[in-house]
Amino acid sequence: MSFDWREYDFFRAPYGLSKRTDQLEAEICYDYELVRECRPLIDYILSFPDRAERVQLYLQSLPVYARWAPNLKTGVYSEYPQHEPIIPLVCLLTPWFSAPWLSGSRKERQRIVHQLAKSYDHLRPIPLHPYAEESARMYAFATLRDRLQGTPYTIFFVPVAEDEPFKTTATRLTQARKELGHNPRPASKHHRYTRGAAAALNRLSCFRFSKLLPRERDPLIESVDFLRLKNVDSQLSRGKAAVLKDLGKRNYLSLL
After folding, report:
1. Which tens digits make up the pLDDT trace of 179-224?
2. CA-to-CA separations, 236 to 139, 221, 224, 230, 245, in angstroms, rounded
3. pTM of the entire structure?
């Protein structure tokens, strides 16, 4: 068996990612690599040779919402839009897709990371639309739904006086969410979000190792730092379960 470390060991020095400085790239890499677990989705993306050109305008006009790609082919999921696979825009922008993310040079990868930086920013502006006639409101809601695919959200009508101070508006919005019973999960001090992407890639490594026969897998694990611990089988099992959950959330499992 030929072993390509770029498929399993995303943080291998000196050519892999850095857990300290490549947090954004690690998050983008996970989105990219998760698609590579779904052969039908890969084939679908590759069937559009002009895919990068198609999404450039979308990326330029909506950089904050461009983490996920718009529909590449109209009408495919019109009857069941909730079953549509969620495709990361990075897969359409990357010239070397569907090779491993780390197949690209550092310079090429950083160019794409720079293009997608705003869409992966977790402090996003709230979409605001003036109150309009019913048809215009429905169009705005549909557009917002497309932009936020894969993210749980609720739409509310909020009147804001034009002369109201910004701090007052922020306070009222915070209080309204509390009254609605929204209880965002607090971030753990130990498992900060900045560690999340690295942990996700390690789980993906476990998922890929779990698909190998033990006689193929065991010698390879010795070269992967985060698996040089006890209870390797338990790590592989937990990683596999977590990745399968992510594949399901993005509607990839139904394609396999």
Report:
1. 888 777 665 444 443 358 999 999 999 999 999 998 888 888 877 8
2. 45, 11, 13, 11, 14
3. 0.78
Query: What are the residue ranges spanned by the domains of the chain?
Result: 5-123+188-255, 134-179
> Residues 86-143: pLDDT tens digits?
999 999 999 999 999 999 999 999 999 999 999 998 776 666 666 665 555 555 555 5
Give the Cα separation of 193 and 112 in Å (integer): 22
For residue range 23-81, list pLDDT tens digits in order: 999 999 999 999 999 999 999 999 999 999 989 989 998 898 899 998 776 555 556 66
The 3 state secondary structure assigned to the chain is: CCCCHHHCCCCCCCCCCCCCCCHHHHHHHHHHHHHCCCHHHHHHHHCCCCHHHHHHHHHHHCHHHCCECCCCCCCCCCCCHHHCCCCECHHHHCCCCCCCHHHCCHHHHHHHHHHHCHHHCCCCCCCCCCCCCHHHHHHHHHHHHHHCCCCCCCCCCCCCCCCCCHHHHHHHHHHHHHHCCCCCCCCCCCCCHHHHHHHHHHHHHHHHHHCCCHHHHHHHHCCCHHHCCCCHHHHHHHHHHHHHHHHHHCCCHHHC
Give the number of other Cβ atoms within 10 Å of residue 237's Cβ. 13
